[in-house]
Each structure stands twice: as structure tokens, then as C-alpha cells.
Amino acid sequence: MIFPEIDTPAVLIDLDIAEANIDRFQVHCSKHGLAVRPHIKTHKLPMLAKRQLQAGAIGITCQKVSEAEAMISEGGIDDVLITYNILGDAKLSRLRALSERTRLSVVADNHETINGLSRFFADASEPLSVLVECDTGAARCGVTSPEQARALARYISDKPGLSFCGLMTYPPVGQEDAVQNWLRTAKAEIEKAGLTVDVISNGGSPGMWQAQDVPIATEYRIGTYVYNDRSLQARGICTWDDCALSVLVTVISVPANDRAVIDAGSKVLTSDLLGLEGHGHVMGRPDILVDGLSEEHGVLRAENINLKIGDRLRIIPNHACVVTNMVDQIETIRGNRALGAVPVVARGKVL
Amino acid sequence: MIFPEIDTPAVLIDLDIAEANIDRFQVHCSKHGLAVRPHIKTHKLPMLAKRQLQAGAIGITCQKVSEAEAMISEGGIDDVLITYNILGDAKLSRLRALSERTRLSVVADNHETINGLSRFFADASEPLSVLVECDTGAARCGVTSPEQARALARYISDKPGLSFCGLMTYPPVGQEDAVQNWLRTAKAEIEKAGLTVDVISNGGSPGMWQAQDVPIATEYRIGTYVYNDRSLQARGICTWDDCALSVLVTVISVPANDRAVIDAGSKVLTSDLLGLEGHGHVMGRPDILVDGLSEEHGVLRAENINLKIGDRLRIIPNHACVVTNMVDQIETIRGNRALGAVPVVARGKVL
């Protein structure tokens, strides 16, 4: 039986693989003169954030104020970019408190966000660094033209307590040239307006090996690369051997020759498909389809399922980031050696 | 602003609606002489489990041992059915400890599960009640023929520490006649073998108003009905006014006339589609499609989005059960009155 000391279902993190992933991308970016600012959404662990900083990262990225609070709770992390429009007195007051404890920067794509930030930082000893979020094609948040980016940069720079420091984008996949052109135009416009663009923050694991193809970027934000997953393997970004996260499960029922049921469902593997068929890759059994999930059951199908009740399997999920958010703790391993559980400190931090 | 005292995103539970949902189905089943055994997977709250028992439920259903432990932690719940093949010494030892604190029953669809249960209960003062899980068409767990059900009932009844007490099925939707026939045949087979079938446990919110169409069932397990959700509304099982759970969100970006972004993504609403288009129903704005989710962003689309940054919305998710599993606490409300946060005691209990 594999990992008999660990009850199932459990999320396993192979630290050897995670560390190799961290180092490989750091070397890649260092070679191209690009700074790395890992997004902690994937691991949610101060331990691995510190490992990323040791490898050469310049700071971390969080999406929410509560994530940043959780990540700096242990010390050792002192540069955090929150890539989110932060709104509302509750969050702004926590952001201000956080700024007394760590070097912070945030993003904004609208006046209301900037007005709120200025209201809470007008009397701060240091101005808050604010980047303009730019929609370079992904159609999520962000100003939609370089001209808007220039106007918002000016708006930030005129506001008490704030300092305009650059541009940030969550780019569309595979459109490096368009992203480069968008950002170059915006930078030129802003410089014409007399402002300096110190930081241009690009990111995304799907485009990680083309990070250097947006040479105007000064830093790259990246999350999933630390663990990798089935969606990145399917895109050719990594191999199965580079996948640090797997879900350890037990076969609890074998009702038919072509079907077995495991003790992990959407409450661990999640329903994220990311365009794939099935809900994960069964290590060593590529013939098996993880066909259907209910909350606590996963239905496996294969022409000849050839599994016994009590058998253990490891499944590489479609999407690693959302899986770590389902569990209060992960089990660290190195190869076949179990090293113990670690709490997922920034799990469920949505505020 | 709606619920200004609650920071977003937040999961709101309207207790007036939840209580009405509990009472309405209890009345329906009582009229038909059917016992109700609510599945706590939807609310995960001892508070609402006790309210279900007060309304007339005979006990509760849990899927995992750790859920049962969490639910009885406060007292006041003393009859728990765990509808799962429980395997492995760690879980069996906890199950045995639990049996000293509450009236327990479990299910099994195979010899290995039964052997494990017997090993841990052979020296118990009371035998453990075991139901045979039957696959009446849903193709998840369960023996696949009435003959297998009879053989497994015999196997249980011959095992030290165990007592065969009946049949349990998670039925296919809309096939009440087939389910009734399957269970009637199995019951007759088992009685021919000299055993008594005390309990026949059927369930499922999609078939709740047809529960009486499987008259051989003695009890009905039901989870989602307490909150309802978009998937049940789409099936005509409930109206929007019967939906007790909504997600309170804030508009954080309005990049275009036809698009806005909210501060809730798959980390709250989840990726469960259940066959629907979009990720939820925006209350009061049926023209809006909750089009895409990333972990912390939701993209809303409408011909004329007509939303301002800072606006608050309430979204009824596709699947209520998985949403309560994402958050450490829910916010209780009655109508427009906020009553305070309650910890989701049985959240993330997958063992």
C-alpha cells in the first residue's frame, strides 16, 4: 500500500518536484533578465513562498487582502503585490494596517478604487504603490486601451497617498506580440505625460516558457507552475513527472468490470474541467477515465478496470490551485517518503 | 447598499426560507407516511440539523465519518446514517468510537467493507446496523442486482458485531417505478432468505416531490432541499423565492457596457454547472449571464450591464451544497435583516 500512514482522500505535495519547478523557472527568467513574482494562489503556503524568494523571486503576488495577511503571518515575506481592485472600508482599513507590516503594491482599473485607496493612505508615511491593470485581451478586469491606462496613471499620480508605479496585465494565452505592443504603447503614452513606468507586470503559467517574448515586462507573476497539473500537461508546458500535486485516493467499490468508485469527489478534485475530458489523470493508469464526480465519490471507467477494493491510486487533478483550496492541510512527501501534514494557511481567504 | 455590515464575497443563508423548506417537505412526507432523514452535506450546520429533527426528521445522513463527528460535536443529534463504504483502520476506529456516542448505521456494497466493520465491532456491546447499498440505476456505488443484495444481506447478518437492517439507494432521477420494482424484488428475496428488512432508504432532492412514488421506501434522505439552488429551480422543484442560499458580491470593475466583474469566482461559486449555462442566477437581474469564473473573479455579461463599481448583487448558485463547503462561515439573515456569522462546522470533512 502506498503511504499507509496517510488516510484518504489526501492532497500530496512532492517537495522535490515543487522545488525543481521553482528553480527551473527562476533560472529561465534570470537568463532573460525578467524578475519572478510568484502567485501564492496555487500553494497558499508561507513555506513555499519563502522557498520561491530564496530561489530569487522579488516578492509574492496575492489576489485578496486576507491572502496577504495569511501569507505574511509567519514573517519572512516582505514584498506583496495584490492584483485586485480593493473596494470597501473593511478591506481598505485592513490593507492600510498591512502596509505598516510589509512593502505593498496594488492595482486599479477605475476611479472608485483609486479614490478609496487614496482616502485610506492620504495620511500614510509612505505612499502606496499602485499599478494600472490593463486588459491586453483576456477580457477580465483592466482598462481597455493604452489611452485609458495613461489617464488612470495620471489620476493615481495626482491622488494624495498614492504613487503610480506601473502596469499590470493578466494576458491572453499565446498572444505575446499583441501584449507587447499594447504595453509598449501604454508605456510610451504614460511617459509622454511625464510619468515613469517602473514596473510592468505580466504573468500566467500557460505562457511561462514564452515569458521573454514580452520583453517590455519587468516581472512575471506565476502560480500553477509550482505544482503543475493536468491542464498544463495537456498544453505541453510540463510532463507528468513535473506534477508535484496528486490526490491520494482509495477504491471503495468495484461494482462492475469496467467501473470503480473512489473516495474523492468534487470536494477534493473539484469540478474544474479547463476544457479537458474527465477529472484527472490516474498515475500509472492512463487507460482510466475519471468520468464523474459527486461530492464524495469519483467514478472511474476503463475497458478493464482491474482494481480491488482498498487499492490506492494517485490522481493528478485538472487544476492544482483549486484543489489546495479544498483541504485544511496537505501532506508533504519526497518521492515515496511521507514527511507530514502542513496546514494550508491561506485556504479559503476570499475577502 | 444591501447588508452593509457584511464584507463580500459572503454566503448568505435566509433562515426564514430554510425553515419553510424544512417544514414543507416534512409535511409532504408525513402525509405519505415516509420518514425524513436529512443529508447534512448541504448545510453542514448542527444548528439546522437540529431544526430538521425538531420538524420531525428521524435522524441525519452523513457521507463521511468526519462529517458525523463534526455534526454530533454539539450534542442534540443522536441518530446518524453514514451512507458510505467505510474502509481502513483509521476510519473504522473512529467509527467505533463514534458508535459509543450516538446511534449509528452504515452501508456496504462489498465483502471487504463488511469484513472491516465486523473486525472493529465484533466486541461492541450493540451490533452495528448495516444497510446494503443498491444500485437501482444511478451507476455509482451499490450491488447491481436484487440477488446480490440478498447475498450481501446474508453475509452481513452472519458477521459478528453486525446486524443487517435494510437497503439504501441513491436512485436515478425520474425512474420511480424502476426503483420501486428493484427494491421490492430485493426485499422479497431477502425475506425469503429468512431476514427482516426494517429500513429502505431512498433519497435525492431532484425526486423529492415524487418520494411517495417509491412506496416501499421507509425513509427519504434529502440534502439540497434545505437551501435549494439554481439547478433545482431549473428542474421546477422550487422557485427563486424558495432559495435560502445566495452569494453576496460586489462589482469591482465595469470595463465595458456589456461586461462587469464581481469579487466572487470559483472559490465561492464553484465550477459546478450541473448541465446549466452560466454559474448562477443574479437576483433581480435575469438578463445577466454569470459567464466565466476564475478563482477570485466572476465575469457578468448582459446587453446593457448597467452596473456601477461598488454595487452589490446576490447570486443564487447552480449547486448550493458545494458552495457552503468553500467558506469557513456563512452569514445568517432573515429577509433584509443580518443576524451574524455561523461557522460551517462540517466544512471540508472528507475523511
Tell me which protein chains meet in the greatest interface and how many residues each side has: A-B, 58 and 57 residues
What is the number of E strands of chain A? Answer: 17
Mean of all residue-level pLDDT scores of chain A: 97
The helix content of chain A is 25-40%
Brief summary of the model shown:
Chain A is α/β, with parallel strands linked by helices.
Structure overview:
Two copies of one chain form a homodimer. The mean pLDDT of chain A is 97. In chain A, strands 1, 10, 11, 12, 13, 14, 15, 16 and 17 form a nine-stranded mixed sheet that branches. An eight-stranded parallel sheet of chain A has the order 2-9-8-7-6-5-4-3. Chain A is 27% helix and 26% strand. Chain A has helices spanning 15-31, 46-55, 65-71, 89-99, 111-121, 146-157, 176-192, 230-234, 320-324, and strands at residues 10-14, 35-38, 60-62, 79-82, 103-108, 128-134, 162-169, 199-203, 219-222, 245-256, 259-262, 280-282, 289-293, 298-301, 312-317, 329-334, 337-343. In chain A, strand 7, helix 7 (176-192) and strand 8 form a beta-alpha-beta unit. Chain A is α/β, with parallel strands linked by helices and 351 residues long. The first copy, chain A, is elongated. Chain A is built from nine helices and 17 strands. Chain A folds into two domains: 32-226, Alpha-Beta Barrel (TIM Barrel); 231-343, D-serine dehydratase-like domain (Lyase, Ornithine Decarboxylase, Chain A, domain 1). Chains A and B meet through strand 10 of A and strand 10 of B.
Q: Which key phrases capture this entry?
A:
homodimer; 8-stranded parallel beta sheet; Lyase, Ornithine Decarboxylase, Chain A, domain 1; TIM Barrel; 9-stranded mixed beta sheet; elongated; about 350 residues
